[in-house]
Structures are given as structure tokens and as C-alpha cells.
Amino acid sequence: MLLEERRTQGEKDREVARLKSDQVKDEKRRYDERHWTDKTLEEMVDRDWRIFKEDYNITTRGGNIPHPLRSWAEAGLEKGVIDVIEAAGYKEPTPIQRQAIPIGLQNRDVI
């Protein structure tokens, strides 16, 4: 109690800021440990995308690269196109399709 009375307002403000900073760090440390296959597209975070790319051996270079496809349903293609793809026997996109299609849909080049 006596120590609290001797602290200046600036010291009290710094302590409050430090506690908030610690709380933010703790929240960042707590991550969702579910596998990316158990998450919706909206729940995916950078860590999940990194693991996804490792799982399919997808490597990219450049800036502002869109996330790869997890499934045909998430491709944003018209239903008729998806029906033709599935009728051709493609149950899931191949690794190159997973990354190249989102890039191509942005009218960007893929090498």
C-alpha cells in the first residue's frame, strides 16, 4: 500500500501498458491446435497455411500470393465447371492445381 502511494502516475501507466502487452502476447501464444483439415476456411491462420503448403510440398515466391485451394468447393468456380472437373475423376486438386488456380484467377503469371 505504501509503495503504491509513492508511485507516480507515469509509473502506474507504464505498468498498465506492460500488463496489456503481456495479455496480448499470451493470447497470441494460445493457438488453435486443430489440424487444418478440421478448420473452416475462415478459421485458417498463417500457421495453418504454412503447414498446408508443407503437406503438399507447395513452394511459392513473390509477393501477395493467394492461399492455395483446399478443395474444389473452395475454388470459387461455377458449379458447372466443378461438376465437369469431378466427372473427369478429379476428386481433389493436385498440388500444382491447388496453388496455380488461385493465382490464375487473379490473371497473374505462373511459372
Automatic annotation (TrEMBL):
Region called Disordered, residue ranges: 1-20
Keyword 4Fe-4S recorded? no
Keywords in alphabetical order:
ATP-binding, Helicase, Hydrolase, Nucleotide-binding
Alphabetically, the GO molecular function entries are: ATP binding; hydrolase activity; RNA helicase activity
Q: Which domain of life is it from?
A: Eukaryota
Task: Tell me where in this chain the DEAD-box RNA helicase Q domain is found.
Answer: 70-98
List the EC numbers from the record.
Answer: 3.6.4.13
Q: Where is this motif: Q motif?
A: 70-98
- Protein name per UniProt: RNA helicase
Organism of origin is Rotaria magnacalcarata
Starting at the broadest rank, the lineage of the source organism is: Eukaryota, Metazoa, Spiralia, Gnathifera, Rotifera
